[in-house]
Design a protein that fits this description.
heterodimer; A: 3-stranded antiparallel sheet; 1 helix; 8 strands; B: 9-stranded mixed sheet; two-stranded antiparallel sheet; 13 helices; 34% helix
């Protein structure tokens, strides 16, 4: 989706604003719970695992592995690859695999975060290493 | 408390249309409501419970008013919205309400026109900023499940194709089916790739239309003329990525809703004579059959192959109306039609070519939302009395 159309800026809210501020500086942030030590994404104030409100921001390496993907061929803006990638830190997240030959994407492939501009904060995508 | 045997499906109706440019959505709701009441032998004045989901224009207030339900009598309403499986959940909730004495004649309606015009956008959740840019659609969300299932278990496109082949064998006998032509595994594999690894024929139809049912008490059901069909077990469940921990797209929330329903019903998979299984895509059927315990996880491909889902041929006749893959998927929501065909089978009203002999126990199961993202599941076990 990233290459084919103008991306909408994230709306943001008080809970997620720090993520988008860091994104402007090229930092990909996740949340970690200081009660159960589990990291999670997308970021929440309350831990989805232990329900503690002791969550803190942590910069992710932005390095990940493709868990699964699907190449969507029926799209007015051209084919695109939706995927779930699993971050080195643990959480899996939905994204698009971009800036590559879409036909060569494989489960297990190493990818890294890449930012695409909007009128507001940039959005994270992933590209093969 | 259990709902086992406390609620009967007394009336069913599936709108014969598959394309309704000349009708309004509210009108379709009214037509299916009328059809289900007539099938039951009841009247609108008998309705004291009403259930609808996100397809009902404006929700409960406008629908109750538009349908002209008796507001002096109407004493229980429920607008639970879980996408395509909403109506399977409504059936369970209606049984709960009936068992608790909160209503005695519940009307459930579904209708809409996705083939005629664009569907209204859904309200987004807290994840919107973190997911909406990536273009998740039904096709690619289910495509991602299929891709990982193939990776983990060696499931093949040929095996998935057998599900469509079975549905098409049934659809040829349904005069209202959108696609009546019998197809082969090769036809499915040769159809255009939509979102890898799903071909066009791995996808369900898009249809206008709708359906409705009447759920009532044992006493009222026994006073009516139709064969008696009752709910004996119900389960519902939800699943999502939940912070991204231990992501596994190869199973659905059916792993939880299924056992809940079987336990309540006190029956096992081996007892089931007919299965209505939500078929938004071929992979949806395969994963749900595994999750419901009809075969082991990862063995769904072998289970569905070689016509095992074809009535009169295989061990588990499924979707004998042609299902969402060939007959009808009104408003992109297949839960209602899953119940309706299960009731037809239990009544002995399915087409003679696909009617399961002595069909006294059936399962109707579905998911709603996106299997690869966030979804709900609901399982209903139905018995002919």
């Amino acid at each position: 989706m990233a290459d084919a159309k103008k991306l909408n800026a994230p709306v943001t809210n008080p809970e997620t604003a720090p993520f988008w501020e860091a994104a402007k500086a090229g930092k990909f942030m996740i949340k970690r719970c200081t009660s159960c030590n589990e990291p999670h994404y997308f970021p929440r104030s309350v831990c989805p695992f232990c329900f503690s409100d002791k969550t803190v921001w942590e910069e992710s390496s932005g390095e990940a592995t493709i868990y699964t993907y699907s190449l969507m061929r029926k799209s007015p803006t051209g084919p695109y690859a939706i995927a779930y990638v699993t971050l080195k830190e643990g959480p899996s997240l939905q994204t698009n695999i971009v800036d590559c030959d879409l036909e060569k994407i494989k489960i297990g492939q190493k990818v890294k975060v890449v930012w695409k501009p909007t009128d507001g904060a940039p959005l994270p995508f992933f590209t093969p290493v | 408390m259990t709902i086992k045997g406390k609620a009967y499906i007394a009336g069913i109706y599936e709108h014969p249309t598959r394309h309704a440019p000349d009708k309004s959505t509210a009108q379709l709701h009214a037509e299916v409501a009328k059809g289900a009441l007539e099938d039951a032998g009841l009247t609108r004045a008998d309705v004291d419970g009403y259930f609808c989901a996100g397809d009902a224009p404006g929700g409960l207030w406008p629908m109750v008013d538009y349908l002209g339900l008796n507001t002096g009598k109407l004493r229980h309403v429920d607008s639970t919205e879980t996408g395509g499986c909403s109506y399977l959940i409504h059936l369970g909730h209606a049984a709960e309400a009936i068992a608790a004495g909160k209503c005695s004649v519940a009307l459930v309606t579904l209708a809409g026109k996705p083939r005629t015009g664009p569907m209204p956008a859904r309200a987004s959740g807290a994840e919107a900023d973190f997911e909406s840019a990536y273009g998740a659609t039904t096709h690619n969300a289910y495509g991602m499940c299929a891709m990982r299932h193939m990776h983990d278990y060696g499931t093949t496109s040929e095996q998935l194709a057998w599900i469509k082949v079975a549905a098409s064998h049934h659809a040829q006998y349904n005069p209202h089916a959108m696609l009546k032509e019998v197809v082969t595994v090769e036809d499915v594999l040769n159809s255009p790739m939509i979102s890898d690894p799903l071909h066009r024929m791995d996808c369900c139809v898009v249809t206008d239309g709708g359906g409705a049912m009447i759920v009532t008490t044992p006493e009222i059901a026994k006073s009516l003329k139709k064969p008696q069909v009752r709910l004996i077990g119900h389960g519902e469940a939800m699943k999502g990525p939940r912070g991204g921990k231990d992501l596994d797209l190869t199973y659905s929330a059916g792993v939880w809703s299924g056992p809940r329903a079987f336990e309540e019903a006190g029956v096992t998979q081996k007892d089931i004579k007919y299965a209505s299984i939500y078929d938004s895509f071929t992979i949806t059927v395969l994963m749900q059959l595994e999750d419901l315990g009809f075969c082991k996880k990862g063995e769904g491909g072998k289970f569905v192959a070689d016509g095992n889902l074809i009535s009169g041929v295989g061990k588990l006749p499924f979707n004998t109306d042609g299902g969402g893959l060939c007959s009808n998927h009104p408003v992109n929501r297949g839960g209602m039609t899953k119940i309706l065909e299960a009731v037809r089978q239990l009544r002995g009203e399915a087409h003679p070519k696909v009617q399961v002999p002595n069909c006294d126990l059936a399962i109707a199961h579905g998911t709603g939302g996106l299997l690869g993202v966030r979804h709900a599941a609901s399982t209903c076990i139905l018995e002919r009395v």
